[in-house]
Amino acid sequence: MHSVGIVIERRVKPKVDPALVSKVRAIEDKWVDRWIKSGIFEAEPDPSKPKFFVTFPYPYINGLIHLGGAFTILRVDIAARYKRMRGFNVLFAQGWHATGGPIVSAALRIREGDKKMVSDLISMGVPVDEISKFSNPEYWVKYFSDNWRRDLISYGLSIDWRREFYTTYLNPYYSKFIEWQYLRLRDKGLVGKGTHPVVWCPKELKVVGDHDRPDEYVGISLVDAVLMKFKLDDGHIIPTMTFRPETIYGVTNIWIKPEAKYLIADVDGETWILNSYMLEELKDQGHRVNVKGEVDGSSLIGLKVNNPVTGLKVPILPAYFVDSELGTGIVMSVPAHAPYDYVALMDLKSNPELLVRYGLDSSVVDGIEPIPLIKLEGYSSIPARDAVTSRNVKDQNDFKKLDEATSEIYSKEYYNGVLLENTGKWAGRIVCEVKDEIIDWLESNGYAIRIYTLPVRVYCRCGARTHVKIVSDQWFLLYSDENWKKMTLECIDSMNLYPPEIREELKKTAFNLRDWAFTHKGELGTHLPWDPDWVIESLSDSTIYMAYYTLAKYLQHPEKYGIKPEQLKPEFFDYVLLGRGNVAEVSETTGIPAELLDEIRREFSYWYPVDLRISGKDLLYNHLVFFIMHHVAIFPREFWPRGISINGWIMVSGEKMSKSKGNFILLRDAINYWSASAVRWAEVMAGADSTLEDPNFEPSMADLAVEEILRWIDYASGNYGVGRSERLKIDDWFESALHQTIKKVTELMDKTMYKSAFVEAYYNLQNKFKWYLRRAGTPNRDLLKQFIEIQTLLLAPFIPHVADEVWERIGKDGYASIHPWPTYDESKIKPELDLAEEIVKGVLEDARELLRLVKQAKMVRVTVAAKWKYDLLAEVKKALMEGARLNEAIRISFRKVSLPSKLASQLVQSISRNPETIEMHVPVDVEYAVLKEAEEFLSRELNLKVVVEREEESSSPKKDISLPSRPAIYME
RNA sequence: GCGGGGGUCGCCAAGCCAGGUCAAAGGCGCAGGGCUUAGGACCCUGUCCCGAAGGGGUUCGUGGGUUCAAAUCCCACCCCCCGCACCA
Predict the structure, then answer these.
(1) N or C: which end of chain A has fewer CB within 10 A?
(2) What distance in Å separates the CA atoms of residue A600 and residue A402, rounded to the nearest whole number?
(3) Protein A948 CA to nucleic acid B56 C1', in Å?
(4) What is the 8-class DSSP label of residue A159?
(5) Angle formed by the axes of helices A431-444 and A399-416, to 10°?
(6) pTM, whole model, 2 decimals?
(7) Alpha-carbon distance A368 to A353, whole Å?
């Protein structure tokens, strides 16, 4: 699915000590080896356990995996590992996508000795003497799938490799599966035939995809245009190409290139004058053409043509901006709304000599004035003039400014321009609303025809100029089918989608989907079973292949199960995937033993449907919708997909990753630089939550991660089992924090919010632990053990090699990787201890601030507020809960608690000034006890004697201002 | 234009759905201190402005509004990114 680019220059470098990286890498190698040997990630159906099937769109293997792919597939691995720890039987398999044109074309280039292609391969680590092997497309598939697998294994992915496969006729088993899928779609009436425009190479006689073009022509797609039929008095048609047929009402003249040669040709029975390029294009778009002669552009100058719509006679004039090789080579001039036309007209008016050269009288242009036909807010009646003047355009050679002006006027007039009275029945309408109607009208009256063309010159790799051809026997998937859409929308409604906003996006995309040309020629893929000249294109053969992972274990291992491709008759798939047919008969037809058929059927029905598909946001608008559509078309409801999680595209140091910027990083390079664990760490920190925002990979984060990882391994293994045995109040707080962390992390993991979960699981927990050590001095032994275990397990989905290493070093058996996920005990979570801890922090901060101001003090007196203040606050809180507003609540509460009026007014002020005290407050005895226990800690931190006392027993001159959660502090 | 995502205290980035505990988490950077032969790492403190008592002032793209109270809700506007199909 994702195409992979190629490294040219490597600007990003690691800063971390390579010796440290080697240490981590050694640990990783050890665990990767054990995982593979033990087969702990090989998934077998187990009806006693709930299953979880998670997938990553298989990559297009024309290159190596880079940080972008690594990011998304890491999220899949995290999901898989997490679910495994949660007790699910998890299937995570991986295949490779070879369908499409790029590999074929790249192999061709190697065969032709293309230097760039060769250097691309070398920069990906291919030895020079092996380059020639890449002239065979099949070798690409083999080489890059091997290398992807290698990279993914060292990355630590928990994939069941027995289910690996690649697509296309290179893998006949897979092709049989695709053939079956399309036969069934055809049975259901979801396949049709029709015409379709393509970019065409007239020399090689083939469709020209992006991969068939030099770089500078990549991404240019064909557009709709209109040929307007102006008529000479002798009946010859002068066709002008335009993207703005509505401006026909403002045509003042026709532009022609005097030096150019034009053809006189028969087109659908009329005599046209146009360039050879458009004639070719017309021929390939179903028009009958026949060349009759040739004419110089100059000889047409001065002639008058009839505007087919307005009937106005306008002259043909010379203009050097006209590209005789684009469109028909002849342009209609609408100076009011087209900057080029406006400037060309002005040029001509100020250079009458030019006219004389063509034997014209300068008076020809004198009478020509722009004809406004669109009203545009914020512009004069001649918007083209405004755009030209504001840019200070000198003449028609000022391409850059003119192109800018053109796109400004075109797009504004298209979306906001209102047609004027002189456009007849279109008057008052907005251009974009009526454009199609206008074209229909022009066409049905014979004033114009629709064509497809390329907006600029586009060349094929072979050097020939391409044009647009309409192919007539194109196969379509009928995505516009109402019923199909309806079922698709139902499925989307029933799915778990992360982030939630993609639900509407998916529905909208499905709803607007048009029929899809699903067959191509000359590419790798699976031949269409009923019309084998065609090959099923790449997006269309990758819609339900997740089902194939459940079969691949059997089909891709003939050495074990003895199944041959030719045995995979449609009946086979009908039986194992749809449960249709009688097993004895299917066995008879296919020659596959009935028991094996049943085993495969059980395997499929156990794992299916897909529980979660994790993908980059780019696939939202095509693949993911197709994925859903084909499932609902082929499978019964119980096998419809259950979930999708989307993430953005990776950035490196805040910039889009690109070869030219030199910040393009291959996964294997990143692992060499920083280790797999540190890369995983930095990828998660880049932003592994489910969101449409782009994550940002910071190389410095990977540097830090290496050290952080080694620190954790050392700390955990060196401190497991140390600590004091007695239990302190602060231990309760940390225990509460631990359980709270598990709870939060679990909730975030369930929402595929992996960065947030990781920050909570590591950074926030570490900070809490640091605070605990500061507060407690020596930690409690049991609690420290618990912390180390929990911390390690929470990290396991993210940095599994490291977790397993720590697990082993602290003397545990088995793997942290597949150990049950830690559970939390709700009764151990004590919010009031957190609040009390906040109070301690607050006292410490306030005391520090006071010390800065007071400069010196001998001791600190901390006075906890009197009980009646707590009672009062409790009343206020109660009143607030009942819906009272703050001031009201305070007033109500005062009536209930009797106290001296002087104190009362003071309190009103401080409560309304510090509303946080309302939320923060804990029972007075808890606050007092915690602060009392913290006396020693506070005095250690402040380097001063600290005394905690109750207001009732205090002699502090500041005791009156004490509030619940805000003890009075007095510096003596 | 339509649809989607964003614009937060030097940079990165939480918070926004469920308004008050938000001068606003965390990281980086910067400054000071501790540790250290030194550097790194690590730990602590500070990092919008003013302040000799925990306070005050001005901030969360811009401008309005709702509210006792707005980064958070409403309205209008500005800027950036992505998709709008045959590249995978």
Answers:
(1) C
(2) 65
(3) 28
(4) -
(5) 90
(6) 0.89
(7) 17
Phi, psi of A302, deg, nearest 5? 95, -20
A356 touches strand B (CB under 7 A): no
Nearest one of A257, A420, A424 to A336, comparing CA atoms:
A420
According to DSSP, residue A466 is labeled P
Q: Which of residues 199-228 of A touch strand B (CB under 7 A)?
A: 199, 209-211, 221
* Nucleic strand B contacts from chain A, 485-514, CB < 7 Å: 501, 504-505, 508, 512-514
CA dihedral (A320, A324, A330, A331) in degrees, to 10, reads -60
A700 touches A798 (CB < 8 A):
no
Q: What Cα–Cα distance (Å) separates residue A785 from each residue in A561, A790, A801?
A: 48, 9, 20
Dist CA A40 CA A56 (whole Å): 20
For residue A115, the one-letter residue type is K
Length of chain A: 972
ipTM score: 0.89
Q: How far is A571 from A586, CA to CA, in rounded Å?
A: 6
Residue A778 DSSP SS3? coil
* CA dist list (Å): A95 to A16, A172, A309: 34, 15, 58
* Distance separating alpha carbons of residues A80 and A643, to the nearest angstrom: 14
User: Counting beta carbons within 10 angstroms of the beta carbon of residue A463, is it exposed (0 to 12), middle (13 to 18) or buried (19 or more)?
Assistant: exposed
Query: What are the b/e assignments for A545-569, b being 16+ CB within 10 Å?
Result: bbbbbbbbbbbbeeeeeebeeebbb
Query: Which residues make Cβ contacts (< 8 Å) with residue A119, sequence separation at least 6?
Result: none
3-state secondary structure of A765: helix
Q: What are phi and psi of A604, to 5 degrees?
A: -60, -50
What digits encode the pLDDT tens for the residues A585-638? 999 999 999 999 999 999 999 999 999 999 988 888 889 999 999 999 999 999
Q: How far is the CA of A415 from the C1' of B79 (A)?
A: 20
Name residue, tokens 């192109």.
Answer: A403
Local mean pLDDT, 10-residue blocks, chain A (972 residues): 47 82 94 96 96 95 90 94 97 95 90 88 90 94 95 96 96 97 95 90 86 81 90 94 91 93 95 94 94 94 93 92 90 91 90 83 86 83 85 81 79 80 86 84 92 88 90 91 91 90 86 89 92 93 96 97 97 97 96 97 97 90 93 96 90 79 85 93 88 86 89 91 90 92 92 90 91 89 95 95 96 96 92 84 86 80 85 70 60 59 56 58 84 88 88 83 83 82
**What phi-psi label fits residue A504: left (phi over 0), alpha (psi between -120 and 50 degrees) or beta?**
alpha
Dihedral of alpha carbons A268, A269, A275, A276, sign: positive
Going through A636-759 in order, the beta strands assigned E by DSSP cover: 643-647, 651-652, 655-656, 696-697
- Please give the nucleotide, over all strands, whose C1' is closest to the CA of residue A852: B52
Strand partners, A966: A963
Q: How far apart are the first and last CA of chain A?
A: 71
Token representation of residue A717: 């293994």
A850 beta carbon to strand B: under 7 Å: yes
Nucleotide nearest to A856 (CA to C1'): B52
Are the C-beta atoms of residues A702 and A670 closer than 8 Å to each other? yes
For A30, A310, A647, A672, A674, the CA distances from A667, given in Å and listed in that order, are: 19, 63, 18, 9, 10
For tokens 């006396």, name the residue: A935
Residue whose entry in the numeric block shows the structure tokens 């995979």 = A568
From CA A688, how far away is CA A683, in angstroms rounded? 7
In the 35-64 segment of chain A, residues within 7 Å (Cβ) of strand B are 60
How large is the C-alpha radius of gyration of chain A?
37
